[in-house]
Design brief:
Largest sheet: 4 strands, mixed
Shape: globular
Number of helices: 4
Number of strands: 4
Length: 140
């Protein structure tokens, strides 16, 4: 096993290396469109992605809880996360948080499908039962 410290937007890996890319919650904390480009790049033709996302309703619940607690700092941050989700949904892009340059966003079915389609993924499947789960495939 080899470990590497890197960002999801710039994987220090060769092209067409993996048959599966798996992420259990990291994607919402990245620049999602750039991360999907990297996932696509490192997948072999016919390779699949499996990842979970944050639905907007989760962010709305967190925002509501922060308002009730009068946690102004978290209200501002959760508002940023929600607005970033809208940016991804309507414009297909995200903006980093002003103070630390990091990303966080909630996602919609439309937004993630659009991002995956733009990158070139096929056989996209999105389900939102217990988890907001996405699978897709790099064409052969």
């Amino acid at each position: 096993i080899q470990y590497s410290k890197c960002t999801a937007e710039a994987l220090p890996l060769t092209d067409n290396l993996f048959d599966l890319v798996f992420s259990r919650v990291a994607v919402p904390y990245t620049n999602v469109p750039e991360t999907m480009v990297e996932m696509y790049r490192v997948l072999q033709p016919g390779g699949r992605v499996w990842f979970t996302l944050h639905p907007a309703k989760m962010t709305v619940r967190q925002l509501s809880a922060s308002v009730k607690k009068r946690n102004v700092k978290d209200v501002l941050f959760r508002t940023y996360v929600l607005l970033n989700g809208f940016m991804l949904h309507w414009f297909g892009r995200l903006v980093p948080f002003p103070t630390n340059g990091q990303y966080e966003s909630c996602q919609s079915h439309k937004a993630i499908r659009s991002v995956l389609d733009n990158v070139g993924f096929v056989n996209v499947s999105i389900s939102q039962e217990r988890h907001f789960l996405v699978t897709a495939e790099k064409p052969r």
